[in-house]
Specification:
Blueprint: E1 7-10, H1 26-39, H2 45-58, H3 61-73, H4 75-83, H5 85-90, E2 102-106, E3 111-116, H6 125-128, H7 133-136, H8 138-146, H9 148-154, E4 164-169, E5 175-179, H10 191-195, H11 200-204
Parallel strand pairs: 1-4, 2-5, 3-4
Helix pairs in contact: 3-4, 8-9
Length: about 210
Amino acid sequence: MSEKKNIIHNHTHSDDHAHSQLPSDPELRVKAVETLLLNKGLIDSRTLDELIDTYENRIGPQNGAKVVAKAWVDEEYKKRLLNDATSAIRELSYQGRQGENMVVVENTPKVHNVVVCTLCSCYPWPVLGLPPTWYKSDEYRSRTVREPRKVLSEFGLSLDPKVQIKVWDSTAELRYLVLPMRPDGTENMDETELAELVTRNSMIGTGLPKEIK
């Protein structure tokens, strides 16, 4: 089976929905907007600090990492997560805009999942925070569909040729999160320790969890 045939979902995107697009040079533009808003007195530094804290520490990959870690140690939670991801993620109080309808797909020794948004940058904010620049790039959005194995190799992820790669296309109506495989040698680690091994890329499918040192 060709890699192109491994694409599982390619939903039609609504033309009028709000895509989470960021400018191509976000750091410069964010700084410019920040300066403008501060100078005009529209926001104060304390409000800005709270917003930054929200996206960096409360709405970010660490939320998704906690979801993954819980699924690794709690088989019943894992079943709920795979059956109804939106509700299971809400159990941990992670919900909100860009995460209303979630699906979690599980990596196995035979199947590796990777997530893309082919038309824009739909992304599960409540569990992964803001999308990285490469996720929004035309190259990633188009090439991941055509040649997923090659794209993953460029991220440093070389998979056995026998492993099937499934590409999932996020949309405004449905967003995906990858449940990576639990690393070997972590049997005695608790949820907090396990969450530290979960990377953002492992939950998108372009990477794997950290290995035990």
